[in-house]
Amino acid sequence: MPVGNLGPDDVVTATRETKLEEITETLDSESVGAIVITEDESPVGIITDRDAALAIHQHDDVGSVSVEEVMTEDPATIQENEEAIEMSRAIKEHNVRRFPVVDENDTLTGIVTLDDLVATIGEQLENVSKTIETQSPEYSP
After folding, report:
1. CA distances to 4, 16, 29, 55, 59 from 88, in Å
2. What's the mean per-residue pLDDT of the chain?
3. Which distant-in-sequence residues (6+ apart) come within 8 Å of 104 by Cβ?
4. How many domains does the chain divide into?
């Protein structure tokens, strides 16, 4: 299954100039854990709920801080046509839980998370389990 099919294609985005106060409001109102920062429809940064929380201790006036000051620049991305297993390798390589998904032109097309990968693996294991139970009725885990 391609990575582009794992997570949502409706990604919450913002620009570098967006204030952190607006970012935290959006994280809350959209019920997401990350916002992709874009420029010309390509990801140039990402800010997570954890990044926003940690910024409180680093700045006196958090409301006036721009997202550019606290975001992770040049985030690790993954191509939409990569197989899902590649996400596992990317998690290990980059030590992150979320990846903006891009097409061949580096245009943002979605976002995938570790949770998406785990849920997909769980669904696949359930399918395997049903096959085993069907083919081996006497088997009981």
Report:
1. 14, 29, 29, 29, 34
2. 88
3. 79
4. 1
List the one residue out of 128, 92, 98, 123 whose CA is nearest residue 113: 98
Q: What angle do CA 54, 29, 76 make, to 5 degrees?
A: 55
Which H or E run contains 139?
none
- 45 forms beta bridges with 37, 73
Instruction: Report the C-alpha gap between 90 and 30 in whole angstroms.
Output: 26
Task: Give the CATH number, domain containing residue 54.
Answer: 3.10.580.10
Distance (Å, whole) CA 119 – CA 141: 21
pTM listed for this prediction: 0.84
The pLDDT tens digits of the residues spanning 52-73 come to: 988 888 877 777 888 999 999 9
Residue 141 domain flag: no
